[in-house]
Amino acid sequence: MPRAGRPAGRGQRRVSPTARRQRRAACLFLAPACLMVAIYVVWPVLSTIRLSFYNWDGMTDATFVGLANYIELFHAPTFYTALKNNVIWLALFLLAPPMGLAIALYLNQAVAGIRIVKSLFFAPFVLSGVVVGLIFSWFYDPTFGLLALVVGHGIPVLGDPRYATLGIIFAALWPQTAYCMILYLTGLTTLSSEQIEAARMEGAKGWSLLWHVVLPQLRPTTFMAIVVTVIGALRSFDLISVMTGGGPFESSTVLAYYMYDQAIKYYRLGYSAAIAVVLFAIMLLYIVYQLRRLLRNER
């Protein structure tokens, strides 16, 4: 019962039938996407977390072992080798966004033949990881590779534990730089011409114009380029599988390949799931940090 002297329904916002229908329509449009995310993203993540507490070979009944997989993982020397290689991948792979930006600035010109040049820079992105791996395997070959011809003698890049990881990262930077270039080329089309002209009238040019006018407008693009680059560095697998198979002596393995190796070769699906959970946690922490930083800068 409403209180005396106060109209019924006071403090309650009435929702019009039109707004109610719009909300219902929005929910119906979002429902298929939410269902697919729940089935193909949320459920596999939860299933992997659950599987990491079991010992399972994929054929017999799973046995609950608690944190045993994680304890074994944190005591395995290969895990720390893979983690160290992932850090190296992450540090060197972050060269892709600035290199992609530099190429995008060069290609963002209205000159004759620039479309042909763009297609040449775009070509590495459409190549599969297997093709890129084979190309650079031939490039590094110490007997007939192009590197041996340039240097004058053979260098066993992929056969030396000191150089294998660096050689694979160099190969992976080729398509990743092309991808960042595409992102920045798209971002450059959204720049405010009024701000650029006003900055030029104030005397800004060159590095000053790029740093104070262009890059602030490209902040969302830079965020996306960094996130996809970090994810690509942490989930690196195809080039390692093609070029070294994690060798020599597991010196070039990373967490993603270590996870595959344990699951496919040794049928240790629970242990592999524990590796996947650790890798997912590292990705999640980094992405949350970058999102908070982006939102803080936007405010």
TrEMBL record:
It is a multi-pass membrane protein. It is found in: Cell membrane. InterPro entries: MetI-like, MetI-like_sf, UgpAE/MalFG_permease. Keywords: Cell membrane, Membrane, Transmembrane, Transmembrane helix, Transport. Residues 82-290 form the ABC transmembrane type-1 domain. It comes from the Bacteria. Coiled coil: none annotated. One of its GO terms (cellular component) is plasma membrane. This is Sugar ABC transporter permease. Belongs to the binding-protein-dependent transport system permease family. The chain crosses the membrane at residues 26-46, 87-107, 119-140, 163-188, 209-234, 269-289. GO terms for biological process: transmembrane transport.
